[in-house]
Predict the 3D structure of the following.
Amino acid sequence: MAEAQKRLSHTTLKRRQRFHPKRDVRPAVLAKANRLVIWAAAFIGLLFLAIIKLQAVLG
């Protein structure tokens, strides 16, 4: 496997994608979207636990 990687030229290896201002979403927008997704997932998780706890108390 290591020999196959050595044979690959530098240009065939996938390069890290750089931010392109006209084509890509701005990194700040992505960071804000990521925070929103994490917040929503945490909220749904806590709501789920609260419903289970409420059912245990009532049932």
About this structure: Residues 26-58 form one domain. The chain has a mean pLDDT of 84. The two ends are 59 Å apart (CA to CA). The CA atoms of residues 6 and 35 lie 40 Å apart.
